[in-house]
Amino acid sequence: MTDLPFPKWPASSLRSFLFSPGIDAYKLAKAAASDADAVIFDLEDAVADSRKAEARALVAQETRRCGGDRAVYVRVNAVPTGLIADDLAAICMPELAGICVPKAETVDEIRFIDNELARLEAAQGMARNVVPLLLSLETARGAWLAYELALACKRVIGLSAGTAEGGDLHAEMGGTWSDDIGTVPFVRNRVALAARAAGLPCIVDGACTRLDDATVTRSSEAARAAGYTGKMAIHPKHIALVHQAFAPTEEEVSHAEAVIKAFAIAEAEGKAAINVGGRMIDYAMVVNARRVLMEAETRRLGDKPNG
After folding, report:
1. Which helix (H) or strand (E) holds 261?
2. Judging by beta carbons within 10 Å of its beta carbon (0-12, 13-18, 19+), is residue 167 exposed, middle or buried?
3. FRET partner for 68 with CA separation of 20 to 30 A, picked from 14, 48, 184, 289?
4. What would the pLDDT profile of 159-193 be if each residue is shown by its tens digit?
5. Of 68, 58, 118, 48, which is closest to residue 88 (Cα–Cα)?
6. Which residues pair with 72 in a beta bridge?
7. Which of 120, 38, 125, 44 is closest to 79 using CA atoms?
């Protein structure tokens, strides 16, 4: 389990991560003003190689401006590109909620980033491990080594599965890209299991590249069903759909309330296994019911965890 000294934003409460190209100042500000729980300012695929330096300056400026009021992540360039050291130097700051590491594949890569950040934090008078890492597993090797990567260093707070249709993992694997069959369900389950086994609080699904509401909703619901805590988005109109998909349903809340109430009575009578609504309930189910109610209460108190 990560032991960051003071994580700014509870990673497990972040349902939506909205991407914004790092080279467009207008879109960066628009993303920052959105209803997304977190934003990801992108220095990687959304920026041409010839404009990386310009994008770093824009992203650093916008992060300083809005990072104190909302969760701002920056997607840096992958370690093998040789660009990441300059990325980290530009955006390592107290206002940053975390770094999204694309195409994470090896433990050595993650430890390299950890060491670079430690050096930068020390140079700026920041405590070590202030800047967390969200690892994006977008290759076959990365997805296969999910557990090892999750434990690569204490900064790692979450894993993201590269489930985007047409994305890097799809290009590598080929095949039919579907939430129901083939590679996507397998990768989702493997990454989620690895994250939980490593004690990570944040499991994020890749963005849906189709813009119609029905596909986004279906993909979000599939991710939540696999145990994910949030999903990446490429368009502001997807945010409400993602939030709705990751909220407990009325049926889930009603059942959880019934479980808590009935079990309290049963336990007082010396019973630890009862029937509630045709389902067998014991201590494990009570723990899950409390989780559902806590989730529902968080959403009731405020739709934006960082608001």
Report:
1. helix 250-268
2. middle
3. 48
4. 999 999 999 999 999 999 999 999 999 999 999 99
5. 118
6. 39
7. 44
- Asked if 134 and 157 touch (Cβ cutoff 8 Å), the reply is yes
Kind of pairing between the strands at 274-276 and 230-233: unpaired
User: Which residues lie across from 203 on neighbouring strands?
Assistant: 159
Reduce the DSSP state of residue 66 to 3 states and report it.
helix
pLDDT in tens, 114-148: 999 999 999 999 999 999 999 999 999 999 999 99
For tokens 């969760």, name the residue. Answer: 71
Q: Structure tokens of 267?
A: 């336990």
Q: How far is CA 12 from CA 97, 103, 153, 183, 257, in A?
A: 13, 22, 19, 25, 22
Identify residue 260 by its one-letter amino acid code.
I
Tokens 């029937």 correspond to 275
Nearest to 259 by CA among 273, 240, 242, 241: 273
- With tokens 């989702």, the residue in question is 188
Give the integer Cα–Cα distance in Å for 256 and 127: 41
Residues in the chain: 307
Tell me the whole-structure pTM to 2 decimals: 0.88
